[in-house]
Amino acid sequence: MDLGLSGRTVLVTGATGDLGTVVARAFAAVGARVVTGYNTNREAAERLAEELGNGSFAIRYSLDDPDSVAAAVTEIERSHGGLDVLVPLAARLSGRRPDADSFATAPPEEWVPFVEDNLLRTLRTVQLVLPAMRERGWGRIVLVSSHLARNGRAGMEFYGAAKAALHGFTRSLMWDAGASGVLVNVVCPGVTLTERVRARMPEQAREAERAATPSRTLTRPEDVANLIVFLASAANGNITGESVTVAGGR
Ligand SMILES: NC(=O)c1ccc[n+]([C@@H]2O[C@H](COP(=O)([O-])OP(=O)(O)OC[C@H]3O[C@@H](n4cnc5c(N)ncnc54)[C@H](OP(=O)(O)O)[C@@H]3O)[C@@H](O)[C@H]2O)c1
């Protein structure tokens, strides 16, 4: 299968994160030039870009600095003639509100950032990259939600609300984008065995997750990355507006 990603330019924001790094490597493995977005970890982003080759390079993309987002998009347009694929993975974690607080009393300063990062700033980034994709008549946008947007979990109201909104956004955006060859989809990972999850989730809790999963297997970062790469590729000829879950049946 020809993924048609060789020579394409892909922006992975949050590329220094657990999922972002694996996603960036998966794109590079099929010949794409990867722009590795970082917030604080410039050195790691530059090291990763060097490892990936194919003309990959690092760029600052901070959710706290809207100008950096616009500057990143402009720089990619200027230096490489445009962006073909956007995968926004920059995120402030974790999404769970502190157990001590109830939903009703959680103060805005605690939960508004989840909505801003996962929803508002993602929408803004899509707004910034879409015109050039439209102009060139080709583009792929893959947003990352979570199986929690569908299944829910105690304590994840705000995170779940922000992630679920991406699904509604995509169902409408597909009309505007699709008319010019831009396909937009959402990937919903289950509990994914990233370094952070391995460090924070005791083996007993992982076992309980496995038992509650039809495939009895937790998702690997590579499972998420493979799905993202496919949806972002030319091999995806006509899938748009979909939310695809990679969570072993959860
Ligand atoms: N891991 C899972 O099990 C799982 C499951 C479902 C969905 N997801 C989703 O996948 C995405 C990535 O998760 P992850 O586990 O890879 O996260 P992670 O390892 O914590 O990485 C977070 C990334 O976001 C960047 N970042 C943090 N604050 C930022 C800010 N203010 N502005 C810009 N970038 C910022 C970090 O950049 P620096 O290192 O440069 O500071 C880092 O690259 C999130 O949307 C998450 O909701 C994860």
TrEMBL record:
- InterPro entries noted in UniProt: NAD(P)-bd_dom_sf (IPR036291), Sc_DH/Rdtase_CS (IPR020904), SDR (IPR050259), SDR_fam (IPR002347)
Any GO BP: monocarboxylic acid metabolic process
SUPFAM superfamilies according to UniProt: NAD(P)-binding Rossmann-fold domains (SSF51735)
Please give the Pfam families that the UniProt record associates with this protein.
adh_short_C2
Instruction: Give the EC number(s) under which this enzyme is classified.
Output: 1.1.1.100
Keywords from UniProt, A to Z, are:
Oxidoreductase
State the source organism's domain of life: Bacteria
Molecular functions (GO terms): 3-oxoacyl-[acyl-carrier-protein] reductase (NADPH) activity
The record's similarity note reads: Belongs to the short-chain dehydrogenases/reductases (SDR) family.
Query: What is the protein name stated in its UniProt record?
Result: 3-oxoacyl-[acyl-carrier protein] reductase
Question: Per the UniProt entry, what species is this protein from, by scientific name?
Answer: Streptomyces griseochromogenes
